[in-house]
Specification:
- There is one protein chain.
- The chain is built from seven helices and six strands; from the N terminus they run βααβαβαβαβαβα.
- It is α/β, with parallel strands linked by helices and about 190 residues long.
- It has one domain: Isochorismatase-like (Rossmann fold), CATH 3.40.50.
- The chain starts with 8 loop residues before the first strand and ends with a helix.
């Protein structure tokens, strides 16, 4: 694993919202605990923590009558200001954290994330998110096109299909965003 330079790194925690966590997170709760530890250690190292959330306005004007988000609208999920759209309390933003709202799958699509990262000179992204085949995959692909260096914290990502999760971490992300564990991230910061 490459060294992590706190001066050029940002941690992106993506879609860790109540409606999503309850649908995707393994029952053991260990993932939330690991994610909280990653955030605390990043903050202690002065690495910006950026929470990326997917939210829609009341009435869903951003959602077409087809496609992926039609189901979200049908189930009345992820509406701005509702408890389901809120970031899970275990990983809630702290003073100094940034919250970025998106209207699509990728953390970059329809958000000001790229502007925030470029303004702060952050070129290495450490990613954790739910779902691996959703926000993590879409963000890795877009960030690769934008020339970001990336690392994925694999044990802080989840997917409904564990085989898809493993294939993404081990095969698809390997050249663009190698996967590490939360413990390896903490150890890399300790070594920095």
């Amino acid at each position: 694993m490459a060294a992590i330079d706190p001066t050029r790194t940002a941690v992106l925690i993506m879609d860790y919202q109540n409606d999503i966590v309850t649908s995707f997170t393994p029952a053991d709760g260990g993932m939330l605990t690991r994610a909280a530890r990653v955030l605390e250690r990043a903050r202690a190292a002065a690495i910006p923590v950026i929470h990326v959330v997917v939210q829609f306005r009341d009435g869903y004007p951003e959602v077409a009558d087809r496609g992926l988000f039609k189901m979200v609208r049908t189930m009345n999920r992820l509406v701005e200001g509702t408890p389901g759209a809120a970031i899970h309390s275990t990983v809630a933003p702290r003073p100094g954290d940034v919250v970025v709202t998106k209207r699509r799958v990728s953390a970059f699509s329809g958000s000001d994330l790229d502007c925030i990262l470029r303004a702060s000179g952050r070129t290495h992204l450490v990613l954790l998110g739910i779902a691996t085949s959703g926000v993590v995959l879409s963000t890795v692909r877009m960030a690769a096109d934008l020339d970001y260096e990336m690392t994925v914290i694999g044990d802080c990502c989840a997917d409904r299909d564990p085989v898809v999760h493993q294939v993404l971490l081990e095969k698809v992300f390997a050249t663009m965003a190698p996967a590490i564990t939360a413990e390896e991230f903490v150890a890399a910061l300790d070594a920095a």
